[in-house]
Design brief:
Blueprint lengths: L19 H11 L4 H6 L2 H13 L6 H11 L16
C-alpha cells in the first residue's frame, strides 16, 4: 500500500496520490471531456460524462460541474477507493 501521502484519520485508508484540487479544477473546466474522472482513474464515468454532455448538446455538462464541486468537498475517491489528498 502507498502511504506516502498519509492516512485518512477517520477511516485509516491511505490517501490517494491524486489531488482533490487538481481533480476538481480539471472536472470543472474540462469535465465536458471527463478530464477529472480520467485523472482519478474512473474511465467509465469519464466516457459517460463525455457521452451525456455530447448527446444533450452541452446541457449534460452540469453533471461534471457538480462532480467537480464534490471532488473539492472530498466526497470522491480515486479508482482504488482511496480518498483524494489535499493540496496539489
Amino acid at each position: 500500500e502507498n502511504i506516502a501521502f498519509g492516512v485518512d484519520p477517520m477511516t485509516g485508508i491511505p490517501f490517494s496520490d491524486k489531488s482533490k484540487v487538481i481533480a476538481g479544477l480539471l472536472q470543472i473546466f474540462f469535465g465536458f471531456f471527463g478530464a477529472g474522472r480520467f485523472y482519478t482513474g474512473h474511465t467509465g464515468l469519464a466516457i459517460a460524462q463525455i457521452a451525456v454532455s455530447w448527446f444533450t448538446c452541452g446541457i449534460g455538462a452540469l453533471w461534471p460541474i457538480v462532480d467537480g464541486i464534490m471532488m473539492f468537498a472530498g466526497k470522491v475517491t480515486d479508482a482504488q477507493g482511496r480518498p483524494l489528498r489535499d493540496g496539489t
